[in-house]
Design goal:
The chain has 206 residues and is of the alpha/beta class.
Length: 206
């Protein structure tokens, strides 16, 4: 039975915090109590930040990374290697790879990976926009940097098949990232080396 609190407003706040991924009732209670201890000015700033997040953060029309304008800072950076595109599952992987400081190409965020068990198919992801982007001719190499899981490998192979006959190199990150690991949790040194030591995708079958 869901616990009720002396204040309806407090109860509503706990319920909303509990809706966040990874936040249980006990964590939601702690967050609500901590929020209650903050000044009205601090809470106002916090609420404004959440409102701005929902109303103003956009997705880059090129790579689908988050940004504050139509094109993200990475895609608009003239010092980046535009011939190299690293394909990742989510925005979290972009942040993880950027933290390595060893990659200077561009990205393409799929927004997930193919997972029939969860009802996620190719049409639910940004795969077609990747194919169109590659066929424009500026991209010389695609780095598949998806999680080394069955779903990640399935997505890699699907993209590989979709790009068959297109004049572009396709590589996959080296297995410095252990099988079954999520890219976002890999340490920066391992992740950086995995990208630098990437291998041709077709060779990864052998």
């Amino acid at each position: 039975m869901t616990q009720k609190y002396p204040s309806l407003f407090f109860d509503n706040a706990v319920n909303e915090f509990a809706k966040l991924p990874g936040i249980g009732r006990k964590s939601a209670l702690r967050l609500a109590l901590q929020t209650l201890k903050r000044t009205k000015e601090e809470v106002s700033v916090f609420c404004q930040a959440i409102s701005d997040l929902c109303n103003h953060v956009r997705y880059c029309k090129i790579c689908h990374n988050i940004c504050d304008s139509e094109i993200c800072d990475i895609c608009s950076d003239t010092h980046r290697d535009t011939s190299l595109v690293c394909v990742v599952e989510s925005i979290k992987e972009v942040m993880a790879i950027e933290n390595t400081g060893q990659y200077q190409g561009l990205y393409h965020v799929l927004g997930g990976i193919i997972s029939p068990m969860e009802g996620i198919g190719p049409g639910d992801l940004q795969i077609e926009s990747l194919i169109r982007r590659v066929k424009q001719g500026d991209v010389k190499e695609i780095i598949l940097a998806l999680s080394t899981t069955m779903e990640g490998d399935t997505t890699n192979f699907y993209i590989y098949r979709k790009l068959t006959g297109v004049n572009v190199g396709i590589s996959v990150i080296a297995r410095g990232v252990s099988i079954g690991d999520e890219i976002e949790y890999a340490d920066e040194i391992t992740l950086g080396r995995s990208i630098l030591n990437r291998v041709n995708f077709s060779d990864s079958f052998k």
